[in-house]
Specification:
Layout lengths: L14 H4 L4 H10 L7 H12 L3 H12 L3 H7 L5 H12 L9 H17 L3 H17 L3 H5 L1 H53 L9 H18 L3 E8 L2 H8 L1 H17 L6 E6 L2 E7 L3 H16 L3 E3 L2 E3 L3 E7 L6 H17 L5 E3 L1
Parallel strand pairs: 6-7
Antiparallel strand pairs: 1-3, 1-6, 2-3, 4-5
Length: about 350
Amino acid sequence: MEAMTITEALPSEPYCSLYGFDQAARTRRMALLELSPQDYKWGWQLQTEIIKPQLHAIIDGFYTMLLKQQEIHVFLQKGFEVAHLKKAQEDYLLSLGIQFNSAAYFEERLRIGVVHARVGVPLNLYQCAYRKLQQLLIDHIPHPIRAGQNGYQALLAFILKITTLDMSLAIETYHRSQVHVLETSLETLQDEAAQLQHQTEIDELTGLANRKHILAILGQALQEAQHQHTALWVMMMDLDWFKKVNDTYGHLVGDQVLREVAARIQSALRDFDSVGRYGGEEFLVVLRNKPLAAAQQIAERIRQQIAGRPIHTSNLEIPTTISVGLTATRQQDDINSLIARADLALYKAKNAGRNQVARL
């Protein structure tokens, strides 16, 4: 509905390029409507004998119809003025049918659809308005032209074809713009959903997987290991004497210690290993497809990463150690039995003097 055209910023590239209307595509669209450069003469006759002499009568008739529709009043309430819209309609009509196979002609018609989509013109009003415009142009064909049957029929056919060309281009970009908006909205929703999912899976303090998520990871890894008959190792780890840190330095310092310990554990693992905060000062590590020697080596590397140097925080140097319980899956294991055995291994390390790795 060309009367609704408003000024907008130009796109970063022409609409003809954005929507694939090169010369070949423009030629195909005109062929569908049986338009050719030989029809230029009808475009000039449309302008010189119908539109220019009766421009304001056509526009007034168009808006007389349009203002009877409830949808247009809803649209006008958004701040659009009829006088401004009539001026846009005037500019549109004065270019109708002129050089219609050119890139510039297609560009302007494609732009109309994009603008109307952005400002929210209802598509049903859009299509009905084109039909009314066709009828107005036909009704304003002068009687002398009507008397010449051959010329009248050819001009009538041209009016129908050229307005259909314009409508097809504007509606095409209208639809594509709407689809783009929906796709963008969908991507935004997907991003938001991913962020929410991430928030529900991550321990806020350490940035590691939280208890629920690391258990879900362990459950999936256990199923895969049992199905594929591959090794799966689990480590249950607990900071030694951590209560003394909280009692001596306060929970804020204790939180900083936990964050640094989490970072050191993470740095000792491969990308496809998993670690989560199981609770308090306990951490759970899942090692996929590892031989015993490699699993023990990683467990020892984690222990050394923690004990090898004190944790610097709040101008303090806090010596920290960790005890590690290591176990592998067995044929009849489920998550509960696997974690229970890792816990027993952890108690074994604690009872043996802490700051060490024990295996069951």
